[in-house]
Amino acid sequence: MSLPKSKLQKIIPVSCAIIVSEDSKILATQRSSRMSLSLKWEFPGGKIEREESPERTIVREIKEELHIEISINSQLPSVTHHYENFSIILIPFICKIEHGEIKLTEHQAFRWLNPNKLLDLDWAEADIPVAQHYLQTLNK
Ligand SMILES: Nc1nc2c([nH]c(=O)n2[C@H]2C[C@H](O)[C@@H](COP(=O)(O)OP(=O)(O)OP(=O)(O)O)O2)c(=O)[nH]1
Q1: Is 90 helix (H, G, I), strand (E, B) or coil?
Q2: Whole-angstrom Cα distance, residue 134 to residue 33?
Q3: Pocket of ligand 1 (CB under 6 A)
Q4: Beta-carbon neighbour count of residue 77 at 10 Å?
Q5: pLDDT average, residue stretch 63-90
Q6: Angstrom distance (rounded) from CA 25 to CA 30
Q7: Residue 139 has pLDDT above 90, yes or no
């Protein structure tokens, strides 16, 4: 028995950054109307290129998308999510800004959120467990 083609799609690896400010706020970015998952909020990041490590991807993507340099503090559990037309594995890193001021190149907005407001946004579905994992680290 063969699976329908729609079930055989590959899982796209994506790195994302939970960027935390000195006063413990978390950066969320809003996808623009030109992007897929239009107007959803996400942790900035992007697809891992072939032969690139997830860590290298996140530093590169954040430089491209936000014009800032970050450093990585730790990694959270990866989340696999199946959207209707594609599947991703989201690999989250907790990060902080080392240099620069945010200048958006692709997203349409950004917000710094207090942890108690984190779950209020209209997140891309894959990001909800990521946000929950982050909040769990604060309660430990
Ligand atoms: N960067 C990022 N992407 C996410 C998150 N959550 C989530 O479902 N995604 C999805 C959106 C995209 O389909 C894919 C990441 O690809 P990308 O950031 O390179 O997005 P893109 O718009 O350039 O790519 P595309 O989907 O239009 O081909 O993963 C997240 O928190 N961060």
Answers
A1: strand
A2: 27
A3: 14, 16, 35-37, 42-47, 88, 90, 124, 126-127
A4: 11
A5: 97
A6: 16
A7: no
Q: Extract the tokens encoding 104.
A: 């958006």
User: Phi, psi (5° rounding) for residue 116?
Assistant: -70, -10
**Spatial contact of 79 and 96, defined as CB atoms under 8 Å apart:** no
Q: Which pair of structure tokens corresponds to residue 65? A: 């998308």
CB-CB contact of 69 with 101 (8 Å): no
Cα of 52 to ligand 1 centre, how many Å?
Answer: 17
What interface predicted TM-score (ipTM) does this complex get?
0.92
Q: Which residue minimizes the CA distance to atom 19 of ligand 1?
A: 46
d(CA 12, CA 47): 7
Is the pLDDT score of 6 beyond 60?
A: no
Spell out the domains of the chain, with CATH numbers in brackets: 23-138 (3.90.79.10)
pLDDT at 140: 80
Alpha-helical runs (H) found in 35-126: 54-66
* 14-59 pLDDT, tens digit each: 999 999 999 999 999 999 999 999 999 999 999 999 999 999 999 9
